[in-house]
TrEMBL record:
Produces ATP from ADP in the presence of a proton gradient across the membrane. Residues 4-84 form the ATP synthase F1 complex delta/epsilon subunit N-terminal domain. Pfam families: ATP-synt_DE_N (PF02823). It is a peripheral membrane protein. Coiled coil: none annotated. The gene is atpC. This is ATP synthase epsilon chain. The keyword S-adenosyl-L-methionine does not apply. It comes from the Bacteria. Belongs to the ATPase epsilon chain family.
Length: 130
């Protein structure tokens, strides 16, 4: 099986680093599936989205990611996020409460609502085994 080195780093910490066979991320241009040997690419991540990493060893990782960039070379993927949270670290009740509080009537409220929705989507995807 072909492998590539993947590193996901948020402003406050390194989230995950290792060998993977596949990465799925949503950029401002659309969803991008990445396998070893991918064409070099630099892309802006969607403001709030879910990233999936399929490690060579272990279960797929689902991560809620907010803002940042994705840098791809044939052997390496670097995901540099403003904020990122592994799905199994997400407190679902807090995310639901944040969604209920976010009114979405202004730009700040709409961004908070989107972040809460992405956190819930990541947590649900991880529990569904995706």
């Amino acid at each position: 099986m072909a492998e590539m080195t993947v590193e996901l780093v948020a402003v406050e910490r390194r989230i995950w680093s290792g060998e993977a066979s596949f990465v799925l991320a949503r950029t401002t241009e659309g969803e991008l599936g990445i396998m070893p040997g991918h064409e070099p690419t630099l892309a802006q991540l969607e403001e709030a989205g879910v990233v999936r990493i399929d490690p060579v060893d272990g279960s797929p990782l689902t991560v809620a990611v907010h803002g940042g960039f994705l840098s791809i070379s044939p052997e390496r993927v670097s995901i540099l996020a403003e904020f990122a949270e592994l799905a199994d670290e997400i407190d679902v009740s807090r995310a639901r409460a944040a969604l209920d509080r976010a009114d979405g009537s202004d730009e700040e409220g709409a961004a908070a609502r989107k972040r809460a929705e992405v956190r819930l989507r990541a947590a649900e995807a991880a529990t569904a085994g995706q």
